[in-house]
């Protein structure tokens, strides 16, 4: 790497998709943040290049200090700018780590979503990657994630050997984007990540990020949600059937009864009660009239302005920003970001820079032109051509 390029990387505090150098065709790893030591970076790059040669899938790993905008939007934009994967198979994958926002995104090409469905990627992150990140072992977590993707793609007969929910995206294990047209989603095949069984009774214990679906598997939820979109007017009937399934007692198979808002508080954790109070999540507690088993059902809400706190893990974080220096055509700007949690004492304040404005005469695209319809000329790899409609999974740590 030349000294000029290295210095340019170090001076960039918040990246745009246009500024990130495409390592292909010679490599598949870009780490201007310096998280990976040279030996680890070389080993991961060799593994990804071997996977591309053996299975055809093009998996790229990018580690950045910070990005302009949300990491998810950045991942989709960068994927489509580079056009990862083959144009016919859409078999590209982008693993993006944004250190400044403590965020991991795995973006999948449209043709790769059957091989690497959103629920599987969410499990991979929760079980193998995020725990390592929390210990400060970023190289180990990234290595475990790349190894998991590599092993799964080598074990599968092909990228599209079974149907899945198209376009689904999961953030910290939760579906946050309406799925596209769906086929019948099969249960995990042998070799998939182990999924913890639902308890027979009692509220879902543990971290707030879990799928508190009362025994309804993530695959059934995903398939049912996709089915509702296909049924149109019949979606109301299907929705009621799913609700009855979620409220069926596992032990005695009787329909469970919902407690009122006052009584159900006794079954919620303090963090869950805070989520209800600020309106980010609605919890429903149901009880079996026979065996008295209880279950906590979690109903997430969209567009609440709240996100998951990296400390207490509840959806109680509010982010606000103040512009300190306005960006101009000659220099970038500076923004002060304040994160406050309504449940725990966490209050985090930091500043980040923004890119300089792009003059109308310049041909290079800026962050304002990010879209999934990037032109093919933006890719520097002759093997590119794939696209992503936003499927995949993301996690915070």
Written account of the structure:
The protein starts with a helix and ends with a strand. The N terminus is likely disordered. The protein is globular and about 65 Å long. The strands form 3 sheets. It has a 7-stranded mixed β-sheet with strand order 1-2-3-4-14-5-6, sandwiched between helices. The chain has 397 residues and is an alpha+beta fold.
Number of helices: 8
Q: Using DSSP, what is the number of strands? A: 14
Helix content: 25-40%
Sheet of most strands: 7 strands, mixed
Enumerate the spans where pLDDT stays under 50 for 5 or more consecutive residues. Answer: 1-12, 157-163, 178-192, 194-239, 361-384
Order of helices and strands: HEHEHEEHHEEHHEHEEEEEEE
Query: Any idea what the shape is?
Result: globular
End-to-end distance: 31 Å
List keywords for this structure.
397 residues, four-stranded antiparallel β-sheet, 8 helices, 27% helix
What secondary-structure arrangement, pairings included, does this model have?
Blueprint: H1 3-11, E1 29-30, H2 38-55, E2 58-64, H3 71-82, E3 92-98, E4 103-108, H4 118-134, H5 138-155, E5 169-171, E6 174-175, H6 218-231, H7 235-246, E7 257-258, H8 270-278, E8 281-287, E9 294-300, E10 306-307, E11 317-325, E12 333-341, E13 347-354, E14 392-396
Parallel strand pairs: 1-2, 2-3, 5-14
Antiparallel strand pairs: 3-4, 4-14, 5-6, 7-8, 8-9, 10-11, 11-12, 12-13
């Amino acid at each position: 790497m030349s000294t000029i390029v290295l210095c340019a990387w170090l001076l960039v505090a918040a990246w745009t998709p246009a500024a990130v150098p495409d390592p292909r065709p010679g490599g598949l790893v870009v780490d201007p943040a310096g998280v990976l030591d040279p030996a680890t970076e070389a080993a991961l790059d060799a593994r990804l290049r071997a996977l591309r040669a053996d299975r055809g899938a093009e998996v790229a790993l990018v580690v950045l200090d910070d990005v302009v905008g949300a990491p998810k939007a950045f991942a989709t934009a960068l994927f489509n700018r580079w056009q990862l994967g083959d144009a016919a198979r859409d078999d590209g994958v982008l693993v993006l780590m944004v250190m400044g926002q403590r965020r991991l995104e795995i973006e999948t090409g449209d043709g790769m979503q059957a091989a690497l469905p959103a629920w599987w990627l969410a499990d991979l992150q929760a079980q193998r990657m995020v725990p390592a990140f929390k210990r400060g072992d970023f190289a180990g977590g990234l290595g475990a994630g790349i190894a998991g993707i590599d092993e799964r793609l080598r074990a599968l007969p092909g990228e599209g050997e079974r149907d899945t929910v198209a376009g689904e995206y999961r953030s910290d294990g939760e579906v946050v984007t309406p799925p596209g047209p769906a086929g019948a989603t099969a249960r995990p095949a042998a070799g998939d990540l182990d999924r913890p069984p639902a308890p027979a009774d009692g509220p879902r214990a543990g971290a707030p990020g879990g799928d508190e679906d009362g025994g309804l598997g993530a695959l059934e939820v995903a398939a049912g949600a996709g089915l509702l979109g296909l049924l149109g007017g019949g979606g109301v009937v299907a929705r009621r059937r799913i609700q009855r399934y979620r409220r069926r007692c596992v032990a005695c198979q009787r329909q469970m009864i919902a407690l009122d808002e006052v009584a159900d508080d006794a079954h919620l954790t303090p963090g869950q009660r805070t989520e209800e109070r600020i309106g980010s999540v609605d919890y429903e507690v149901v009880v079996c009239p026979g065996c008295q088993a209880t279950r906590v059902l979690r109903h997430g809400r969209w567009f609440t302005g709240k996100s998951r706190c990296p400390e207490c893990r509840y959806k109680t974080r509010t982010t606000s920003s103040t512009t300190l220096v306005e960006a101009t055509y000659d220099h970038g700007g500076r923004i002060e970001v304040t994160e406050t949690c309504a449940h725990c004492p966490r209050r985090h304040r930091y500043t980040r820079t923004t890119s300089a404005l792009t003059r109308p005469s310049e041909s290079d695209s800026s962050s304002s032109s990010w879209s999934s319809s990037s032109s093919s000329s933006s890719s520097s790899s002759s093997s590119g051509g794939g696209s992503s409609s936003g499927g995949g999974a993301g996690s915070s740590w």
